Structure formats: C-alpha cells, structure tokens
Amino acid sequence: MEHIKAMAIKFIGSLVLLYIVLGLFYGMSFGNVFLITLVWGIASYLGDLFILPRINNTIATIGDFGLAFIIIWLMGENLTYGGSVFIPALISAAGLALFEYFFHKYISSNNSREESNNPRPTNLQYQTESSKELTPKRTDFNNENEDTIK
C-alpha cells in the first residue's frame, strides 16, 4: 500500500508540474503531457526503489534531473510538431528535480519504519586479505653451481 501511495503522489505532482510548464506555457496537449508523465513516473520510481537506498539524496536528484530531461526531450520531440522542445524540457527537468528532492525526503522518512523491520546492508564494505609474500627460489643460470639466489 505504501508503494501505491508514493507512486500516486509522484504521478500527481509530476503531472501538475509538467502540465503547468509544458501544457500552459508551451501549448503541449494534455494527452502528450499525461504520456510523458506516465513514462517519467514509472522510470523514476523504479530508480527511487533500487538506487535511492544506496546513494544520497543529492546524487539521486541530479540523476533524476538527467533522466527527466532525456525523457521529456525525446518524447516531446517525437510527440509534437514544430519547434524544439529543448528549453521546455530543461525547465521541466529543473522543476521535476526540485520536486524529486522533497519527494526523496518523504520516501526516506516513510521507509525508515520498513528498514527497521527488514535490515539489509546498503553500504557494503569489502575487505581484502593479504599475507606476507612468498618468493620462490630461482636458479641462477650464470652460475655453474646452480645455487639459488637469496
């Protein structure tokens, strides 16, 4: 139930923000904005589920900015006719990144209860074992006695 609630908050917030920027300011149809929001919501929520627990909020927000820009720009270019959607995609991605910053804080505060019930390592600390190196004895071919080098 928590996932449905979080995904609904993400979808509605993203839809409102994208419709304001893309729909009202740049004249994109509601159907196109809805489709972009749907693709963006699914892709970013999967990222939030698997990547956010392993990295911090700032890096996740920067990644969300890049993902939002690429999705909005590519889908906007393919779904609309006319001018470039580079600037609207940039503005929309910045708005979504700001929204995602606060959404990540919401997710982190609500998932703290779940993590206490199911502890799993998020920051794996690998260690390397080493030992004193053993050097093999080599035969000196220049020496007729074939003594070993020490």
Automatic annotation (TrEMBL):
Biased composition (Basic and acidic residues): 130-150
Matching InterPro entries: DUF2512
Segments traversing the membrane: 7-27, 33-52, 59-75, 81-103
Keywords: Membrane, Transmembrane, Transmembrane helix
Keyword match Cytoplasm: no
Disordered: annotated segments: 110-150
UniProt superkingdom: Bacteria
Pfam families named among the record's database cross-references: DUF2512 (PF10710)
This protein's name: DUF2512 domain-containing protein
Organism: Cytobacillus horneckiae
Source lineage: Bacteria, Bacillati, Bacillota, Bacilli, Bacillales
